[in-house]
Amino acid sequence: MDLPGITEVADARLGIWRPGDAWLAGGTWLFSEPQPALTRLLDLHAFGWTALQVSPDGLDIAATCTLAELARQEFPPWQAASLVGQCCAALLGSFKVWNTATVGGNICLALPAGPMISLTAALDGVAEIWGTGGAVRRIPVADFVTGPGRCRLRPGELLRSVHLPIGALQCATAFRQLSLSALGRSAAVVIGRRSPSDGALVITLTAATTRPVQLRFPAPPGPDGLLATLAAAAPRYHDDVHGAPAWREAITRQLALEVLDELERL
Ligand SMILES: Cc1cc2nc3c(=O)[nH]c(=O)nc-3n(C[C@H](O)[C@H](O)[C@H](O)COP(=O)(O)OP(=O)(O)OC[C@H]3O[C@@H](n4cnc5c(N)ncnc54)[C@H](O)[C@@H]3O)c2cc1C
Predict the structure, then answer these.
(1) What's the gap in Å between 32 CA and the centre of ligand 1?
(2) What is the pTM of this model?
């Protein structure tokens, strides 16, 4: 799509942020619809960040890492590594989208169906945010996304990277995803993980809910305990063409029970 209001595309390292700017990552969303409020794009690829860095502490994913780079990476024998491919595959884009869409763009766009939100929230990912003047702050991804199309970025801030801690990567995981149609966007994604050290269980709900919701249990709670905790959390269910709230709530309950059952069998 032509964006006639854009008069400049600048190197993100050099541009001083001003109203009308937007950070340009893969551009798969930015170039997919009119952007009447924008006059300049600041290209994040100019930073040349290393896409993925494995360390004894876990995994650091640069915001500019593409879904394709993430999906083809070979990881150490972390139990949760299988979740990476499952979440990347949950974005049913074309070859072009798959190869240009970035992890950071997916998280900052904050669509409920954002599979990189599902992945990084479920593994207790922590977002590193760069502000103007060299300020750096960190927020759990589960708190970073606050609603459909909304996140905690302030004007001029950018998402630099997400850190996935080793403790979460070593957990066994269970993944469920459902869409209204075969090639549709995710209507519900439920991811569970179980700690190999103490058996603690975390179930993360995305896509169905307006923002990530995490349910934490010191031990597997059983179906009734799970449903009671889910009811107490009272998530807000998203409403759009990809699914009505009541349906999303019903399938989330079902998928959460399946995830619990799978993790309890381990
Ligand atoms: C065919 C198709 C299918 C799609 N399916 C899905 C889907 O299933 N789920 C889904 O969530 N999305 C989907 N999308 C939307 C979009 O393509 C993806 O969310 C993609 O991951 C966005 O990443 P990007 O790098 O292209 O972001 P861009 O388009 O470059 O940017 C998106 C937004 O995030 C901002 N931004 C990007 N990076 C940063 C950063 N590091 N710091 C601060 N702000 C930043 C940009 O300024 C912009 O506002 C789809 C798009 C298409 C065309």
Answers:
(1) 10
(2) 0.97
